[in-house]
Amino acid sequence: MYFLIAGILLLLMKYLEVGFAADLSWWWVLSPFGLAAAWWVWADMSGYTKRKAMEKMDQKKQARIDKQREALGIKKKPPR
Description:
Layout: H1 2-16, H2 26-46, H3 48-72
Helix pairs in contact: 1-2
């Protein structure tokens, strides 16, 4: 996501001829988009994306369980 934001900012700066980006080559300006694509391919192939999604689901599930226990007046179990 950071590569995509950097690419958009550099692209706008180059198009509007603002700051240092006005003097940069188009290859440098467009390179963050290639890096973002490479990151997404790696993240999908390595399982990083799926692992992060599963962690987020587990956190939501645990929060839901804790909320139900609190509503029932059951104390949370201490970690071992």
